[in-house]
Amino acid sequence: MNIKILPNEYWWAGIVNEGTRMPLGVEDRAVVDFRNVKTPNQASPLLLSSAGRYLWSDSPYTAVFEDGEIRTDAPVEQKEGFGTLKGAYLAAMKAHFPFAGEDVEPLFFSRPQYNTWIELMYDQTQEGILRYAEGILEHGLPAGILMIDEGWAEDYGRFSFRAGAFPDPKGMMERLHEMGFRLMLWITPYISPDSAAFRELEPKGYLLKDASGETAVRRWWNGLSAVLDLTNPACEAWFEGKLRGMMEEYGVDGFKFDGGDPDMYRDDDRTFRPASAWEQTRIYGLFGKRFALNEFRAGWRLGGQPLVMRLADKLHSWEENGLNTLIPNSLIQSLSGYAYHCPDMIGGGEYQSFRENASHLDTELVVRYAQAAALCPMMQFSAAPWRILDEAQFAIVKQAALLHESFGPYIARLAKEAARTGEPILRHMAYAFPGQGMERVSDQFMLGAEILAAPVLKKGERSRLVKLPEGSWEDMEGRLWEGGRTVSVDAPLEKLVWFRKTGGR
């Protein structure tokens, strides 16, 4: 198919990890490849236009932007006449990924989250987890959801805590609950070869088979593992039973569902029922709906589902897959129907990058990252800010966390509305204010219809330009600004720039 791009028309593609490339206009040359299974984040086969048009296909396709046209290598559904980016999104959402009114746990939005990954990495221990949780409270941060990350189990497919590292896991969970935390465990759909689980599951046909009919053993970031065949209802029941068992035995509240990346699957895999690589990723996501507390990173066509979607692990960097991607990629999540999204761990969650920079962490980056996350739907800590920052810097980060908590009821209300209307929580400026030249603004966003957030995203900057939409705006210090213009705002390190639209929602 060939689609002519209109003058002053811009397009966004539903590939979350490519947010910094968006939008694409009449003069741009680019390839948007929904067939590429190497993406580490969510994707949906959707193209949205600022002129009220959209393209969709249930199957992957490639779209080439060149010479003022979009050329697709397969038939796609083309719809138009919806006026604006918002109109196109709402039409596509209702037709292809409708929200069903299923609420997400409000605590995700009303309190900061905490993850033990960067502090403990693969050495998760009862002592270390309790020390991290105690540090949160001792330093005046509010209790919230605490995620115990990878390393709590002996191997993949074993659903019990490492005996030496966790002398009393149930007691640990009870203590954490008493401290006010809800608890999630890191989990994957992978099974360690030559393990008890592998020997149990392979004869039952619960493990994925390759094109030759042999049990597939695939390489991922932690080595080689077999993969659960979740197209098999009996395998699903086994997996759910193991997770429910941990909830009952230890008091776990939910799970961080990592893995499930499409490049762990193949289109020619022999599965219980036929499923492409992308479809197997989707099935893993739908499985997670069974648990009220869930988090995913990979996903395919899961817009509208009551699933928490995190951005892929970011480098400890300003420009290279770091803070520079937080807002652009979050905007693509919103425009793809992933309303309940988290902008990765503050300071970056890519552990090798954090380890390489451990002796010279950029503390300014950590502060600005916390501010950028503060008015997102969720914010998540991992590296203990009281450990890596000085007293003044930590006070700024704590202020950002408390600001997020103060907005908690507002964000939770937006999440509840999203479940029923499909409206994003975090919104692109062009979505909220069509016809005002906001299409290429990707360093500020709207939180609902009322709050404009404009965090500093570049090292050393102590002021920034903000494109204020038409109307009247009140800044964080109570001063009124007339919109319809670009303004320069002071932004010392301790200041997160945000405005409230006056005159109601």
TrEMBL record:
Where are its TM segments located? Answer: none
Q: Which GO terms describe its molecular function?
A: hydrolase activity, hydrolyzing O-glycosyl compounds
Q: Which SUPFAM superfamilies match?
A: (Trans)glycosidases, Glycosyl hydrolase domain
Which keywords describe this protein according to UniProt?
A: Glycosidase, Hydrolase
Q: Which InterPro entries match?
A: Alpha-glycosidase_related (IPR050985), GH (IPR017853), Glyco_hydro_31_C (IPR048395), Glyco_hydro_31_TIM (IPR000322), Glyco_hydro_b (IPR013780)
Which GO biological process entries does UniProt record here?
A: carbohydrate metabolic process
Q: Where is the Glycosyl hydrolase family 31 C-terminal domain?
A: 422-503
**What positions does the domain Glycoside hydrolase family 31 TIM barrel occupy?**
122-411
Q: Which family does it belong to?
A: Belongs to the glycosyl hydrolase 31 family.
Write down what this protein is called: Glycoside hydrolase family 31 protein
